[in-house]
Design brief:
It is built from three helices and eight strands, in the order H-E-H-E-E-E-E-E-E-H-E. By secondary structure, the protein is an alpha+beta fold. Strand 2 and strand 3 form a beta hairpin.
Length: 132
């Protein structure tokens, strides 16, 4: 049993990047699906596919690499809010990641979204992770 499924998701992606894998398979949940959609929309991953099987289902993520240098589009994944210490930010306190080059993924009352989108909608929430 995994106590922090978001940290497990980020660790699986981080390990796949370090090993140079093209595709990573992750157990599915609604919040992981939302984070995957955000990563795709922001251009951090190449593609994804949700496979719905009976007990849980899985997410297949195709990682994005530079064609010549073989470096990943994702340089870092950092879990911010943890089960033991939740991190919340109001609309005015939403952090900027790498001076705007990265994104903060937030869970708000309007759903999971980037920090920029939450700031635009003037909504605060829990800061889940940073991606850069």
């Amino acid at each position: 049993m995994v106590t922090d499924p978001i940290a497990d998701y980020l660790t699986r992606v981080r390990n796949a990047i370090m090993a140079g894998h093209r595709v990573v398979e992750i157990p599915s949940s609604n919040i992981k699906k939302a984070i995957t959609q955000i990563l795709f929309d922001q251009g951090f991953i190449l593609n994804f596919k949700f496979i719905d099987e009976k007990p849980q289902g899985k997410i297949m993520i195709a990682l994005k690499y530079h064609p010549k240098m073989k470096t990943s589009a994702i340089k870092g994944l950092v879990r911010v809010s943890k089960p033991g210490l939740r991190r919340y930010a109001s609309a005015g306190e939403i952090p900027r990641v790498l001076n705007g080059l990265g994104i903060a993924v937030m869970s708000t009352s309007a759903g999971v979204m980037t920090g920029k989108e939450a700031k635009r909608q003037n909504i605060g929430g829990e800061v889940l992770c940073y991606v850069y």
